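Q: Sequence in, structure out?
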Amino acid sequence: MGCYMGVVTKHYQHVLALAFAIKEINENPQILSNISLGFHIYDSYFNAKWTYHNTMQLISSSERFVPNYKCKLQNNLIAVIGAVDSQTSLHVATLLDIYKIPQLIYGSAPVMNDKTPGLPYYQMAPNENLQYVGIRSLLLHFRWTWIGILTMEDDNAERFVQTVSPLFSEKGICFAFIERLPMLTFITQFYDLLKKAARIRDKIMRSTANVLVAYGESYSMVALRWLPYLSGEVTKGKVWIMTAQMELNAVVYQRIWVIEMFHGALAFTIHSKDPPGFHHFVKSIKPSSTAADGFIREFWQQAFGCVFLTPTLDETEDSICTGEEKLENLPGPFFEMSMTGHSYNIYNAVHAVAHALHDMFSSRLHHKGMTDRRELKFHNQQVWQLHHFLRGVSLNNNAGEKVSFDQNGELVTGFDVINWIISSNQSFHRVKVGGMDPQAPPQQALIISENTITWNSWFNQVQPISLCNAYCYPGYSKKVKEGEPFCCYNCTPCPEGKISEHDDMNDCYKCPDEYYPNKNQDSCIPRDRSFLSYKEPLGICLACFSLSFSLITAVVLGTFMRHHETPIVKANNRNLSYTLLISLLLCFLSALLFIGQPGKVICLLRQTAFGLIFSVAVSCVLAKTITVVLAFMATKPGSRMKKWVGRSLANSIVLSCSLIQASICTVWLATSPPFPDVDIHSAVEEIVVECNEGSITMFYCVLSYMGFLASISITVAFLARKLPASFNEAKLITFSMLVFCSVWLSFVPTYLSTKGKYMVAVEIFSILSSGVGLLCCIFFPKCYIIVLKPALNNREQLIKTKK
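A: Exactly. Output:
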C-alpha cells in the first residue's frame, strides 16, 4: 500500500547536503571567483499540479508568477536538482526541456522511451541496469532461485518487473509471486487498500520463498512498515533485498513501530562517502542559528516529537522543543548523521554544476581574451551552453572521489551493498558488505563478503535457503513438475551408466571413455586397462601349460629322432612325423603370443601364425592319412598305386595345403591387418586392450580353411581305420581329429560369447587342447612302444603278432 501521510524527516538531510555543497563552493576562491551560488527549495508534494506550478515559479521572477520574465539579473536559474522520485523528475523535465535548463536527478530516472542526448537531465544515480545485474549476481551467489517480488503500483515498478523477469529467468531464477502494493490516491480508499495489502502480506508470509526483492522509491518504506500490523499471522523472517532508491525511513506516527522484519536485509545503495566537515556541519544545525531555513522548525518538531512555543501557543500537553536537542540522538529511520546516497548525489550535483559553470566562464574568457573576470556578466551566457560543459565535467570532490558523466548523461559510479542491522531497542545502522563495480566485467562486478553479513534472527545466523524444493544431490537429476515454474522439480536417480557430480543438475551424463560411474553415480572412477597378463593367475597357468606342452613335444621329438631307424618311427613317413611334431611345438609356443599387452607386431603375428602353424599340422595329419590309404592299395597285386606312394606325395600335400593358408593370411595382412585396439564397451570398470582382427571375415576364412582340412582328414581316417596294415595310424588319426574338431567346433560359440581377456583365454585353451589331442592320440601310443615295449618295435615281431 503506497501511502505518504506525514513528513519523512530523513529527507531533511537532502536540504543540508545542498546547503553544505553551496557553502563549500562559495568559500572556495578557485571556483567561480566573485560569483556566489544560491538556491531555492520547493516541495512537489508528490503531486503533478504542484510540481508544474513550482517549476514555473523557478523560471519566473521571484516576485511575480510570470513565466519568461525576470526583472533581476542576480537571480538566474542555471540548473535544477531533483527529484527524489521519478514521476516528479519527469514532470519537471517536460518544462525544462523548453528552456534547455539542465536537471540533475538524484533519485531514480523517469521512464522515458524517447530519451535523446539533448534532453536536459543528468542522472546522478548509477544506471539501474547495473543494479539489476547486481541483484541477479547476489541471488546466484547464494543460490537463491525461488524469490518473490514486491513493488509499488507505478510505471517504474512495471518497467522493473519487465526488465528483471527475463534477466533472472535466463539464469534459472523464478518467482513464487509478483505483488504490487497499490498507491493511495484518495483517503476514502484507505481501508480498502489496507485489506488488499493484508492479503499481500499473508501471501508473502505463507510463501516458501525466503527471499523478497522489494522495488520502490524513497517513500515506499513508509508503506512497507505497515505490513507487520495488517494481520494476525506470524511474521516469518525473510531476506529483504532492497533496491537503491529505498531507504529505511519513517513518518512521525511510525515512531514506535517495530522494524525487526527488515533486520538482516541487503540493500543496494548509491555509493556515498562523507565529505570532510559534513558531520560537524550537521551537528552545528540548530533552529536558532538558521533563520533562513524554512524547513528546520517543522523538521525539528516532527523528528523530536515536540512543539515550539509561539505567541499563539503558550501552553501544550506535548513536550516543548528547546532547540538544543541533538540530531545524533535521533533513531536511524528519522535521521542519519552520515551522508546517505541521495544526499551524496545532491552534493555531487552541486559540484558538477559549479565546475561546469566555471569551465564555461573560463572558456568564454579564453576566446575573448579578457583579463578581468569582473567584466563578465552572467546574462551574456546562454543556459543551454551549460550542457556542453556538464557532459564533459570531470572532477574530484572533497571526499576524494571522481565525478563525471558518461555519454548517456549518467554518473559513472557504482552501488554499495549494505546489510541493515536492527537492534532490540530499534536502533538502526548500516554495514557495508559488498559493492558493484561498473568498470569490472559483468561476471566479476559484484563483490560480496558473506562472512560479514548478519542474517535475520529467524534463520539462526545460518545462511538462508530459498528454493522451491530441496536440492537434487549428486547422483540425481532434475525433472520438471508439470504445470509449475521451472524452479520446481522432482529429483530422479541417474540411469545406469550416467552420473551427476553437482547439486541440481538438469541431466545426467556419461563418464569419459577412460572412466566409469561409481556406485552412487556421483563421480567417475578411472578404468583399469585389462588384458591377459603374465602377472595374473590365469595368464601364469596358461603360460605354464604352453611351456610344459612345448617341452613334452620336444621330448617326443627327441625320442623319435633317437629311434629314427626303428620300424614304428619309419612307418607312415617319419619326416611327416617330425614336421607334425615341430608344428605342434610351435603351436604350443604360439599361445604365448596371446599373453601380455598386445602391440602392433604381436597383433600381426597372433592369428596369422596360429592359422599357418595349425594348417601345417593338419596338413601333416591329412598327408599321413592319405599315405595309409595309398600304402594299402599299393599292396594289392597289379595295383598302379605304388608309384604314388612316397615322400613326394606327402610333401606335396603338406606344401600345397600350407601355401593356400599362407595365401589367405597374406591377403588378410595386405588388405585389413589386425592392429592394437581398446574395447570400452565390453566391461564397465575396465578398458580391454585387445587386438582388433581388422577383417573378421578373413579371420573366419582362416578358421574355416583349417576346419576344411580337418574334416577331410577325419573323413579319410575314418574310412581307413580298419585297413589291415602294419602300423596303421588311421585309428589314431581318427580319434585325434575327433578331439581336434570337437575343440574347434565348441570354440566358435564360446569365443563369441566371451569378452575381453577371457576371449583370449578361450582361444589359448583351444590351441593347447587341440594340440594336446593331436600329440596324445597320435604320438603317445608310439612312445609307449618305443620306451616301454621296445621288443614290439621290430618288423618281425609286428608281422608275427599280426599273423
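The CA atoms of residues 122 and 409 lie 5 Å apart.
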